[in-house]
Amino acid sequence: MKRWSLLTILVCFTLVMTACTAQKTSGVEAEKIAINVEVASVSNESLDAISSLTGTLLPYEETVVSFEVGGRIQSMNASIGDTIKSGAALGALDPANYKLQVEIAENAILQSKAALNSSDSAINSAEVGIHSADAGIASSDESIKSAKANIKATEARINSAQASLSALDKGAREQEKTQAKLAVDRAKSAYTKVKVDSERIEGLYNEGLATKKEFDDIQLQVSNAQKDVENAEQSYSLIIEGATEEQRKQVLASIQEAEAGKEQAQAGVGQSSAAKGQAVAARDQAVASKEQSVAAKGQSQAAYEQAVIGKEQAELTFSKTKLTSSLTGVVLDKLVSKGQQINPGDPIYKLGRIDQLKVLLPIPDKDIKQWKVEDEVSVTLYDQVKTGKVNKIYPQTNAGTGTISVEVVIPNEQLEWVPGQVVKANRVTSDNNGILVPIEAVMSSGDTPYVFKEVKGKAVKTKVETGSLINNKIHIVSGLKEGDQVIIRGGELVRDGDPLKTDGGKKQ
């Protein structure tokens, strides 16, 4: 609408100038002077060309880097305009305090490790105590078992001795006495028989009818038979006479000895039981000590793990005293100075990736459907033109302008363009062509628009039908054809048939 207003003003100006000229020359026949104008040859152009969209170049990526911890800046390694790679060192904080925290954490690990080892030693010692107490309990059980066996053995001895004493006190029975007397008689009878045989063998021996061996054997039999008689008589005498005082004393002594053994065995049971009780108590104490040591180990283990976490945190914090680049690009701005005290998150550098640039084009919302991702866009900076591509179409309208932003990405490998420069963008969406002439070339007489063509050095007024206004040009629907020479400047001073001078103008 603003452009049509400008057209109306130009048309009115043309009419006024024409009227003034007519008044000056009315009634006077004068020789016409050639009018100096600028002409151009019209040609077909795209009717869908959208140009004169302007925008400001921006880095393809942009970020502000900061330290995650606070402190005094010790070094600044990059300057504005420096090209940097991702991961490059940009600066560092004074690490003294953070290094101290790492050392404190390492010391805490050593202390908790020592406590853990001490707990392990205590557990091992308690387990040794438990094993020793178990061995003591087993040994006491064996001692008790042995002492009880000794008690039974001594009780048997006591019973046997008491039985012997009782037998001595009662003396031999009549049957035993009879048997003893018979044993004496049998021994004497055997002796008498052997004695007779001895005398017979002796006579034969003396006469040389018996051998020396036979004589010696019979003499030995006589001696043995005599001893058997003596033993039988002695046994018979003992049975008849009864036990002696000496025998009773021997039996009593045996009883007393057995009773003493029993008491000793009973004492052994008591001692072994007491030893077992002590071993059981020692085992309980060792078990309690182990449980305490296991609990202490659990605490030491927790303290150790906490110390390890503390060290990792301290080392992580220490690592954050160094600032690195998060992208490959250039330093756009340096926001602090060396020696300055900063807080976590304070901006340090502003970095940008400019091997690619982007520009946001404001597209009227009524035209946004014509735009698509991957569309090519011609971007102009001064006399240099690059081809970019639509990377993103924003999903909402800008409230203040009624436009929708379209992001165009532009290659910039040589870094010849920089962020902040203003560029123009041009996009062609189809092959719909037509004749376009500058708005200054079209004039109007009433409702009828016309242009002046240059034909053989003279102005020829030509009516035209106009269409849309595109990029400060008017679409000529009819009245002109490609190749026509049209006055584009100076036409407001020209009338139909006036001679034209195009030496100082532009004739194509």
UniProtKB/TrEMBL annotation:
One of its GO terms (molecular function) is efflux transmembrane transporter activity. The keyword Ribonucleoprotein does not apply. Pfam families: Beta-barrel_RND_2 (PF25954), YknX_C (PF25989). Keywords: Coiled coil, Signal. Residues 137-164 form a coiled coil. Residues 363-426 form the CusB-like beta-barrel domain. GO terms for cellular component: efflux pump complex. Residues 1-22 form the signal peptide. The keyword Plastid does not apply. Residues 435-500 form the YknX-like C-terminal permuted SH3-like domain. Belongs to the membrane fusion protein (MFP) (TC 8.A.1) family. This is Uncharacterized protein.
